[in-house]
Write the structure tokens for this entry.
Amino acid sequence: MSLPGKLYVVGFGPGSRGDMTQRAVKAIEGADLVIGYTTYTDILREYFPDKEYKATGMMKEVERCRLAIEDAEKGHTVAMVSSGDSGIYGMAGIIYQMADEMGSGIEIETIPGVTAASSAASILGAPLMHDMAIISLSDLMTPIDLIMKRIDRASDGDMIIALYNPKSKKRTGHLQKAVEIISRYRSPETPVGIVRNAGRKDESKIITDLGTIDHDDVDMFCIVIIGNSQTYVSKGRMITPRGYEI
Amino acid sequence: MSLPGKLYVVGFGPGSRGDMTQRAVKAIEGADLVIGYTTYTDILREYFPDKEYKATGMMKEVERCRLAIEDAEKGHTVAMVSSGDSGIYGMAGIIYQMADEMGSGIEIETIPGVTAASSAASILGAPLMHDMAIISLSDLMTPIDLIMKRIDRASDGDMIIALYNPKSKKRTGHLQKAVEIISRYRSPETPVGIVRNAGRKDESKIITDLGTIDHDDVDMFCIVIIGNSQTYVSKGRMITPRGYEI
């Protein structure tokens, strides 16, 4: 009988090799098998070409987790990978849930990474210097009314808002609705930063504002950051001051 | 005349070497000078003993930034370091503000890191799988009423809440006030995770709940994560489900 394996749940950050933590690199290098959504394994194949990969499509999260846990139970060291931080809208939660459900006793270690909001912020300037809300506009598993309630409360609290999954092919109107709600509390001049493919080869950014945002500039590969009432733009950088006397 | 230098604003993550990104390691290794708050330079001296360091005390942020910019203007490559992500309550904002104020044309690059919420979450299990608010309880530069309004709105929106700077020697009552506000919206059984010195040698964690949290367990080295209405504890792990059908 083989020894039980180990499952690493690895967040590899925005996508560039340099933005991976050393723990993430070590976990992937040491794994017998790397499992993830096809887009992610395609990125990692370039950095770690000699590893064995298993990829599954989008929305196959449960299947992917089962595969990862079963492989670890056979005695393998498995790295379940996702971009950003595995602990923020990542795979960590469902892995723990599945392991419980399957009665699996394998060792699981979550390796945190640089989340998309951090990565996008570093490209825009310094928009996240104050209290903020991270909200996903995907209503696949969350009622849209609850999402919009959160947008409303975060706006009322003058929190910076980082929107994950701002759009998909099927969901095109949520961002507009969110901008309408935020505009009830903030001026049309409030800076809005849009970062597409943060940390990847075709990275791009746009700094606009609540009143003139062009919704066509946003797709599923974007993170959108909406400033609070103090956020301003200087020399092409979006900055939220924190109150230091300079 | 020397060429203008470069200033890297580096977030080095929770504190362990493994949790640093490769970009952060490279920026520090390549720097002529590493500048930061004493606690941070002490951590980095251990990993990079041969570098030259300049340390300043707490609350000396403006002075520290001026030093960093002036050194870069002399043609040096400077790494301004802070723990976590340099872009979330970090040094990125004030560096850009100071550079503007000083009319400095030096090149500035922000290198994002793993923020404290991500690090603490990975130690607790998977509490941040859904929409969340990151709120600092430090009222040094933010009116306490605004902080508590944000706690209220985040609670009403059923967002997970990650509290940074939950306590200091002078601020001992803010956490209790925050817990009182959150308790208006969430049951006493709502899981609360407290992580002290996340990612450092003497790391520790406590999982408790809103009704029985012992405020003496929390100090300035802690991050506190309060679950949403769906968060539960299983096998010592704090988990917020995201709605997958398992």
